[in-house]
Amino acid sequence: MIYVPSRVKRHKYKFGMNTGLNLVSLMDIFTIILLFLLFNVSGEDEAITVPDIVRLPVSVSTVKPVPATTVYITGDTIFLGDKKIASTQDVIKSGEPGIDSLEKELIVQMSQNEVDTENDGTRKKIIIMGDKLIPFTLLKKVMYTCSWAGYQTFSLAVIQKE
């Protein structure tokens, strides 16, 4: 019986090439992948930081917040930035629709930020980070106070549901 090699085998023997691993091409590819990842994966997705004192609710919202004046509402206290403003229990028990101390601080904050943020338009924006367990009446009072102080755009911070 005569052995007749297949067409592929004949081609392989006739035009045999010395193939090896070309490391230069692989290094170029890895360098391009590394540069792509460095430019596209950075910490810019995290626009604001969430302190440990607030547990934010989960939402399907995909809108990224813009850094602005931030009001934190915990289970015990209301903060404007780092400054303690009022106790949540006192605010809930009061019959007034707004919070006087928060309004005063917001007006002061707005006047201080007036020069800095006039150009980018964040002067009248505010972010409210409320704990997921606070009652809605408290959140409503904070929103009313922010509106009364002159802030026109509210952003309620949430954690994006995955």
Q: Could you state the order of secondary-structure elements as H and E?
A: HHEEEEHHEHEE
Structural class: alpha/beta
Number of strands: 7
Give the averaged pLDDT, no decimals: 84
Residues in helix, %: 25-40%
Radius of gyration: 30 Å
The strand line-up of the biggest sheet is: 4-3-2-5-6
Unreliable spans are: none
| Cα shape | elongated
Number of helices: 5
Q: What separation lies between the terminal Cα atoms?
A: 67 Å
Strand proportion: 15-25%
Biggest pleated-sheet summary: 5 strands, mixed
Which helices and strands appear, and what pairs or packs with what?
Layout: H1 7-14, H2 23-40, E1 58-59, E2 69-73, E3 77-80, E4 83-87, H3 88-93, H4 100-113, E5 125-130, H5 136-149, E6 153-156, E7 159-160
Parallel strand pairs: 1-7, 2-5, 5-6
Antiparallel strand pairs: 2-3, 3-4
Helix pairs in contact: 4-5
Molecular structure report:
The protein has 162 residues and is of the alpha/beta class. Helix content is 37%, strand content 17%. It has 5 helices and 7 strands. The strands form 2 sheets. It has a 5-stranded mixed sheet with strand order 4-3-2-5-6. A two-stranded parallel sheet has the order 1-7. Helix 4 packs across helix 5 (136-149). 15% of the residues are buried. The mean pLDDT is 84.
